[in-house]
Amino acid sequence: MSDPIIRFDNVVKRFGDHTVLDRLNFTVNRGEKVTIIGPSGSGKSTVLRILMTLEGIEGGVVHVGGEPLWHEADGVTPASEAHLRKKRGEMGMVFQQFNLFPHMTVLRNITEAPVRVLGLPKAEAKARAEELLELVGLTEHMSKFPHQLSGGQQQRVAIARALAMRPSILLFDEPTSALDPELVGEVLGVIRRLAEEHDLTMLLVTHEMRFAREVSDRVVFFDQGRIREEGAPEEIFTDPTEERTREFLKATLEA
Amino acid sequence: MWPHRRTARQPIFAADPVEVHWTEYLPPLLEGAWVTIRLTVFSTLLGAILAFAAGVGRLSRNGALRAVSVAYIELFRGTSLLVQLFWLYFALPLAGQAVGLDLRIPPVIAGILALSLNIGAYGAEVVRGAIQSVHTGQHEAALALNFTPRQTLARVTIPQAIPEMMPSFGNLAVQNLKDTALVSLISLGDMTFRAEQIRNFTQDSVTVYSMLLAMYFGMALVLTAMMRGIEHSVGRWRPVRS
Ligand SMILES: Nc1ncnc2c1ncn2[C@@H]1O[C@H](COP(=O)(O)OP(=O)(O)O)[C@@H](O)[C@H]1O
Ligand SMILES: [Mg+2]
User: Fold this and answer.
1) Is residue B17 a part of any domain in this protein?
2) For B122, phi and psi rounded to 5 degrees?
């Protein structure tokens, strides 16, 4: 099965004269759950941020849903804002720092974009939000403000907020790295459920190795802006071929 | 005008100081206070609108809009309020006359305009600072949800920036209240103007000016309390801070 929903072709990304991604080639198939692991600064977040159009690229082509993301159909002409909006609509993102809107209740956090962006009637948006709050187990907190919730609860709201836009791709950038250890489990639990019960394409950056091993179809090891090694979780975690992968895994397991 | 009302009882146009009990000062002072209050309220509101327009304009991606905002902010912060007031009231009509336009404006309008243009320029910097203080993660989340830049500004950035700017706006409002005293110089019958009239008439400087001081102070206290109230209500969603 090869139906790439995300494809990076020779993508170059620089910050000043620091090349973060050097001709990256990378694909994710429709419905696939892919985990990106790798040392800090290796370009993992940059990959997600390029997809979500939070960062531009300096070379190559990124395809999302079969169309170039940053370019028009010819793959050369820079994309219009309308095109970027359409592509963004196919994706959702969950941030390390949650980034909930602090001035909106939990419910409004989830309904605001469906109402304002998708033009959903308020009642329908609310019904959708309630359904999602049930999924993430926060129904009783819907009238609270984010600061009244724990980090784990906030991140679950953020997941519901992203899902409310009905994306076909969900990007997670270290969703549990900002959480106290005892709150990590509840967030991973929600992500695991999504992975198991939905045909969503998921691209997840994480340092939770056991979780990565359990939920992903494929694990990608990033090192210095390049894919050093990728494969099925069992391969990567039990029998990596690359020395760098082995070192990295050894270091994270010891930590 | 206060002296006229009293003509039946007092020989008010006498050259010598007139003996008047201090409570007699109250009605004209209160009349002036009402003018001061209205001046403060209108110019603060108009000033807030200008502050938002120029503060947001300064951050706009549109170069022309940015230039106009910067020019306005710098011009009005860089010149004195008194000169702005005189210019609007005395110079503008003459300048207008020179090009064949009737630009005479009543003192009230000149006063409100000068005050609000002034507070608007200072307020614009407050608005800009508060907007910039909103975390970039908020913009990223808004973009990821496909909000347009305008929706992001109106629904995400400004609502979070407002509580941030309230303490400074409170100070500006009080500053504005105090600045209204300057309009007495273009013969607007505000509190200071009335006090000046009474003093000319009674020579009782100590009492009159003490009352004036107390009344401004009282108004400032009320205004501060009101701004705190607004600050509290626009920041309800924020964690309680001790
Ligand atoms: N906005 C930026 N400006 C300059 N350098 C950046 C910026 N964002 C990321 N980088 C650099 O790009 C590299 C990759 O960053 P990132 O993708 O965040 O790594 P990771 O998520 O794997 O830790 C790092 O060296 C980082 O310092
Ligand atoms: Mg990162």
Assistant:
1) no
2) -70, -40
Structural domain count of chain B: 1
List all residues of chain B from 120 to 159 with a beta carbon under 8 Å from chain A.
135, 137-138, 140-141, 143-147, 151, 155-156, 159
Shortest CB distance from B237 goes to which of A52, A102, A117? Answer: A102
Taking CA–CA distances from B138, the nearest residue in chain A reads A99
Least confident residue range of A95-104, A239-248, B20-29:
B20-29
User: Mutate which of A103, A110, A145, A171 to disrupt the B interface (most B C-beta within 10 Å)?
Assistant: A103
User: Order of strands across the sheet with A59-64?
Assistant: A18-29, A4-15, A59-64, A67-68
CATH number of the domain that B223 lies in?
A: 1.10.3720.10
Distance to chain A for B131, nearest Cα, Å = 14
- Which of A53, A99, A161 shows the shortest C-beta gap to B137? A99
Pairing label, strands A18-29, A4-15:
antiparallel
| Sheet containing strand A218-223, strands side by side | A91-94, A169-173, A201-205, A33-37, A218-223, A226-231
What region, left, alpha or beta, does residue B18 occupy, with left being phi > 0 and alpha being psi -120 to 50 degrees? beta
B173: containing domain: 24-237
* Contact in structure between B128 and B59 (CB atoms under 8 Å): yes
Q: How many residues does chain B have?
A: 242
Residues whose beta carbon lies within 6 Å of some atom of ligand 1: A 15, 20, 38, 40-46
Residue A226 burial class via C-beta count within 10 angstroms: exposed 0-12, middle 13-18, buried 19 and up: middle
Task: Tell me whether residue B111 is in a domain.
Answer: yes
Nearest Cβ partner of A113 from B137, B140, B145? B145
Atom of ligand 1 nearest to the CA of A39: 22
Distance CA A13, CA A15 (A): 7
Chain B CB contacts of A119 under 8 Å are none
Residue B2 within a domain: no
Q: State chain A's mean pLDDT as an integer.
A: 94
Residue A34: predicted pLDDT: 97
pLDDT of residue B117: 97
The question of ipTM being above 0.90 is answered as yes
Tell me which of A1-10, B117-126, B135-144 is least confident. Answer: A1-10
> A112 — contact with chain B (CB < 8 Å)?
yes
**Cα–Cα distance between A41 and A179 in angstroms, integer?**
20
- For residues A223 and A38, is the Cβ–Cβ distance under 8 A? yes
Q: Is residue B163 part of a domain?
A: yes
